[in-house]
Amino acid sequence: MVDERLGAFHMSVASPHRRALLRAALGGIVLGGGTSLLAGCAAPLGQQARGTPAEAIATEGSAVLHNGLGGRGAAVGFGTRHALTCAHVLEGGATGARLRRADGAEAEAVLVGRSARMDLAVLCVPRGFLAAAPRASDLPREGEAVWAAGAPGFGPAIAQGRVEAPDAEMPGFGRGFTARMPALMGYSGGPVVDASGQLMGLTAALPSPGAAGALAFLTGADLDGLARRDRQVFVLGIRRAEAEAQRLLGRTAA
């Protein structure tokens, strides 16, 4: 029997239309997941991203993160020698992982920083392995269209949705925003971009999963996500993530 209450969070929301503190004891689940034999049924990430705002970052600025058990999530380029991902994507005690780009090129990544303030890990990668995507200069707007890229066990690797809460905080995960989109298990640590392809944040968690979502976390077969297009997804804001990465690296530039 799977316990649906895998955790709890409190989210604060502020938007031009409303300012309220929403406190809900909802089950929380992270978006990391193992691969499936059905993964081969999906088109390659680069092909799925073609013609979308996520094309550039999906093919040049992000990679699937493998830990020896299959795809567990994704990572995004940060500077010339680093990558960012969600800390929960790495197995407990892991000191590194293997990254695979959309073109099939692979590289070893070494963990150089894990935040105690948010769900963030910094990896050292070979110079130039991942291109740093342009960062969004504006804060998210309610209703704004967004695109996410990830590494699901099976199903689409590109998800489109809209910003729901432009300013949200999830204790243990950090501050960012929530969006409604059909993100699947395996999107954790992957990029979320705006209509111009600028990086807005990293996909981090599902605040309110159901039993099928819990099963997906264990198996990589995200049945609930494939059936729904209105999932609430928490996205760790890129500005705060990068500031924390700078602090972890002890630098003023990545």
Automatic annotation (TrEMBL):
GO biological process, one term: proteolysis
A molecular function (GO) term: serine-type endopeptidase activity
Keyword Transmembrane helix set for record: yes
InterPro entries in the record: Peptidase_S1_PA, Peptidase_S1C
The keyword rRNA-binding belongs to this UniProt entry's keyword annotation: no
SUPFAM superfamilies referenced in this protein's UniProt entry, alphabetically: Trypsin-like serine proteases
Keyword entries, A-Z: Membrane, Transmembrane, Transmembrane helix
Regions crossing the membrane: 20-40
Protein name (record): Serine protease
